[in-house]
Automatic annotation (TrEMBL):
The HTH tetR-type domain, residue ranges: 6-66
Ion transport among keywords: no
Identification of the protein by name: TetR/AcrR family transcriptional regulator
Parts forming coiled coils: none
Higher taxonomy: Bacteria, Bacillati, Actinomycetota, Actinomycetes, Kitasatosporales
Gene3D superfamilies: Homeodomain-like, Tetracycline Repressor, domain 2
InterPro entries recorded: Homeodomain-like_sf (IPR009057), HTH_TetR (IPR001647), Tet_transcr_reg_TetR-rel_C_sf (IPR036271), TetR_C (IPR011075)
Residue spans binding DNA: 29-48
Keywords of the record: DNA-binding, Transcription, Transcription regulation
Short name of one Pfam family: TetR_N
C-alpha cells in the first residue's frame, strides 16, 4: 500500500525481545521499545500489541528458540543420559558466551521479577519455567531414573540452569560456570549408577 511503511515483524520481535532481555519487563518503556524496533508507538500497538502482549510474544519466542535447542540436546537421553544433560547445559553456556545476545536469561530475569509483574505475565513465566522441568523429567525417565529421582533431578537441573544465567550476569567466569555444571553432572552420574530397587 502506497505511503505505508513496511517492516519485518520477526526482526521487530527479535529487537523487542533483546530489549526486554537486557532491561527486564518493568524497566522497559514504550520509548525503549520504539528505539529498539525502529517503530513509533502507534505502529507498535497496531502491529505488535500493547507492552504486556508484546512481552508475552517475546517470552514465547525466546522459550521456543531455546526450548528447541534444549529438546535437541536431550533427545539422546535414553542412550547417553550424561551426554544429553551436559549438552542441555551447553545450550545455556553457549548462549551466555554469545556476544550477540544480552547476558543472562530472559526467563530467569522474568521469574525473579514475578512479584512486580501482572498476574498474566507472572503465570506465563511460571509456565515457561515449568516446561523446563517437564522437559528434563521426561529425559531423565528415558534415562531410567526412578520417578522420584527424575522429579528431584529435573527440579535441581532446571534450578542450576537458571542460576548459570544469574551467576553469569553477576560476573562469574566461564570456568566457574563449568564447575557448577560439573558438580551437578557428578551427582547425576552417581544417581544413574545407583542400583535400581
Amino acid at each position: 500500500m502506497a505511503g505505508k511503511k513496511q517492516f519485518d515483524v520477526d526482526v521487530a520481535l527479535d529487537a523487542a525481545m533483546v530489549q526486554f532481555w537486557r532491561a527486564g519487563y518493568a524497566d522497559t518503556s514504550l520509548d525503549d521499545l520504539s528505539r529498539a524496533t525502529g517503530l513509533n508507538r502507534s505502529s507498535i500497538y497496531s502491529s505488535l500489541g500493547d507492552k504486556e502482549s508484546l512481552f508475552s510474544r517475546c517470552l514465547d519466542r525466546y522459550a521456543r528458540r531455546y526450548g528447541d535447542r534444549y529438546d535437541q540436546a536431550l533427545a539422546g537421553a535414553s542412550e547417553e543420559p550424561l551426554g544429553a544433560v551436559r549438552a542441555f547445559f551447553e545450550v545455556t553456556l553457549r548462549r551466555i558466551a554469545d556476544p550477540d545476545v544480552p547476558d543472562g536469561c530472559l526467563v530467569a530475569q522474568t521469574a525473579m521479577a514475578i512479584p512486580a509483574l501482572s498476574p498474566d505475565i507472572a503465570t506465563r513465566a511460571i509456565d515457561v519455567v515449568g516446561l523446563q522441568r517437564v522437559r528434563l523429567r521426561t529425559a531423565l525417565i528415558a534415562a531410567k531414573l526412578t520417578d522420584s529421582d527424575a522429579d528431584n533431578f529435573a527440579v535441581h537441573i532446571a534450578a542450576v540452569n537458571q542460576s548459570l544465567a544469574v551467576m553469569s550476569r553477576a560476573g562469574a567466569s566461564q570456568k566457574q560456570l563449568h564447575t557448577i555444571v560439573d558438580i551437578s553432572m557428578s551427582a547425576l552420574s552417581q544417581a544413574l549408577r545407583a542400583p535400581r530397587a
